[in-house]
Amino acid sequence: MFVDDYNAERSKMGRAIPGQSLTNDPENPAPYEQAPEMTSVHEASIYLWDFITEEETYAALMTAIDDEVPVMQIVQTILFNEFQQGKWNPDLMLMLAEPLAYMLIALAERLDLDIKIDDDEEEGDVFGVDMEEKKLEELRNSQIPQGFITEQMANEMERLPTMSSLLEPQPEEEAPAPEQPSLMAQPEGQ
Question: Which pairs from 24-33 meet CB under 8 Å and 24+ separation?
């Protein structure tokens, strides 16, 4: 009896109150409450490729993969963040998980990184939805199916930096000399 009551109360925690979305200001909706910016897998895949191959993002992602952060964890983080910004709806977000995972795997393979696909405890779970075992096994074996990486993507991949250049410390630019004396400096002539 006590266990049933406890589980009933625990299941309510952290969930939205029924009707809570109706209290949001309709004049100022959140980005994910509006029409999505992208509605096709192709368009969103090109956007994601451009996003993950930006210099800073690429370096951060490859460093994370090198530090054994699971690829599917990175995929979920990127896709959910872009969903919150209104880029796509939840359905498209789920459809983009596999293409984005293959893009990250291809980039990591190019750098000969050891790739961890998922956590052992959350095996095959993407946004709470189980992936097909066949697709999960293809991801684990790094078998990138035809069409996930286009010829244009492969050409762009060749121009990306290597892991050794990513790990090298970048020279810091010297700050320009101040044109005005600092407000904290002692006044001249005293």
Answer: 30/84, 30/86, 31/84, 31/85, 31/86, 32/83, 32/84, 32/85, 32/86
